[in-house]
Design a protein that fits this description.
Blueprint (H helix, E strand, L loop, with lengths): L2 H8 L18 E2 L5 E5 L4 H6 L6 H12 L8 E5 L13 H18 L3 E5 L1 H7 L6 H4 L3 E4 L2 E6 L2 H6 L4 H17 L5
Parallel strand pairs: 2-3, 2-4, 4-6
Antiparallel strand pairs: 1-3, 5-6
Bound molecules: uracil.
Amino acid sequence: MTLSELENKCKDCKNCALCEGRTNLVFGTGKEDADIMLIGEGPGENEDLQGEPFVGRSGKLLDKFLESVDLSRKTNVYIANMVKCRPPQNRDPKPEEQEECIKWLREQFKLIRPKIIICVGRISAQKLISPDFRVTKQHGEFIEKNGVLMMGTFHPAAILRNPNNKELAFQDWLKVRDKIEELGIRI
Ligand code: URA
């Protein structure tokens, strides 16, 4: 199975109620065999309309962070979300919605085989790293899980709300760059 075959299958998904409100499924975007994968929370309004993750204001900020450490969705990272359909009014995805949708994400992990996974924000960090993950305390810390290095950082929407965390987030992205160098990953 290729990533685009998986995406086509996913487009028919009706495993949870979020499918009822979607304009477009937001499967993911970027390099198909990227060593670095980013996982956000779920599509917002712009993402739902365009079918691509992180295309709104917070996406622009995310792209800036990526660019500052020579990463980009165009060349060397893959970006997806915990849930692939927009939660109504941008509420947090419910545990049962995440539990359904993680099945698709696991298939994406198997095909993309990233070496580093960055959890962008609390929702994905709590689901993928640890249920009690605290972004303010544990951001920037790498832990290994099933042979993959994982790190959680601030969600760009949270930084737009509280710009004081921008510098801390930038430091996290510098750590990603250092880790890429340390592991000898060619980007
Ligand atoms: N926030 C997210 O977590 N993901 C998106 O795709 C857009 C905004």
